[in-house]
Amino acid sequence: MFSAGSETTSSTFRWTILYLIKYPEIQKKVHDEIDKALPRDRLPSLLDKDQLVYTQAVINEVLRVNPIAMFGLYHAFDKDIEINGNCIPKDAIVLPSILLCHNDPDYWEDPKSFKPERFITSDGKLDINKEGFLPFSLGK
Ligand code: HEM
């Protein structure tokens, strides 16, 4: 748990800093949002998250274009199953490609571009159920 939890978060942090250097206009928007949302006389807390929609969208976009885990863990089915006409036999190892999903033009317009706005709804909220966004893989 320590290795799964430390390398993932520190790499995400480093990639985020890299993208903020690469796109100074995005960096400025994050900075302005943080300045506006967080009082200077206390430390930030998770309760402040809702005020940081753009910042969260930037982190999601970093996780989309650069998923720390390109693949999920090995999974297997406990019975034969059929998906879109393909048979996946019992006990076959299934390894979902997060990277392919995050670059699939069926889900993402212009997938190669870094666009945090794609995670913000038309009424300015964070789109938390975006189909095709699987940085933490698929679960069971
Ligand atoms: C940006 C942060 C993180 C990302 C992108 C990430 C991504 C992932 C992915 C893709 C998997 C594979 C899931 C699967 O295929 O079923 C996974 C598994 C796992 N992650 Fe993370 N993770 C992150 C942070 C963390 C943290 C903070 C912890 C613990 C404190 C953690 C602990 C674990 C563990 C224990 C597993 C294995 C779960 C299992 O055996 O079913 N991860 N993570």
Describe what this molecule looks like in 3D:
This protein has one domain (2-119). Helices cover 38% and strands 7% of the residues. The protein is built from four helices and four strands. The strands form two sheets. Strands 1-4 form a two-stranded antiparallel sheet. Strand 2 and strand 3 form a beta hairpin. The model has no long low-confidence stretch (mean pLDDT 94). Helix 1 (2-22) crosses helix 2 (24-37), helix 1 crosses helix 3 (53-65) and helix 2 runs antiparallel to helix 3. The protein is mostly helical and 140 residues long. It is elongated and about 55 Å long. Bound molecules: protoporphyrin IX containing FE (HEM). Protoporphyrin IX containing FE (HEM) binds at residues 1, 4-5, 8-9, 12, 68-69, 72-73, 135-137.
Segments where pLDDT lies below 50 for 5+ residues?
A: none
Q: Sketch the major β-sheet.
A: 2 strands, antiparallel
Provide the residue-averaged pLDDT: 94
Order of helices and strands: HHHEEEEH
Tally the helices: what do you get?
Answer: 4
Proportion of helical residues: 25-40%
Q: What small ligands are held by the chains? A: protoporphyrin IX containing FE
| Whole-number count of domains | 1
Morphology call:
elongated
Work out the radius of gyration: 18 Å
End-to-end separation in angstroms reads: 18 Å
Main-sheet strand order equals 1-4
Q: What would you call the structural class?
A: mainly alpha
Q: What portion of the residues fall into strands of 2 or more residues?
A: 5-15%
What is the number of beta strands? 4
